[in-house]
What we know:
Helix content: over 70%
Low-confidence stretches: none
Largest sheet: none
Number of strands: 0
Radius of gyration: 39 Å
Shape: rod-shaped
Mean pLDDT: 92
Strand content: under 5%
Number of helices: 2
Amino acid sequence: MLAWSGFLVGAVKWLLDRYQSHLDKRFESLEKSNDTEHREWQRIERELLELKATLPVEYVMRDDSIRQEVVINSKLDALAEKIDSFRDRREHE
Length: 93
């Protein structure tokens, strides 16, 4: 009976040790995965901050672009009127 009890205790201890080993490996795998994801999120956050910094320098806002286009078109219209006025004066001479 004592031998049987010792065998059962040993078997249970062996199973628990195996289960503990499995859990340790699983947690280690999860920690590695978590570290990898954390580094990836840091990289993404850094790239987003770099993009936020370069956007105002490299790109023009829509409203500013429209305003510039209106100014250029106004100047072209004024130039066209001067050319037409000059042409009309030369034709009447």
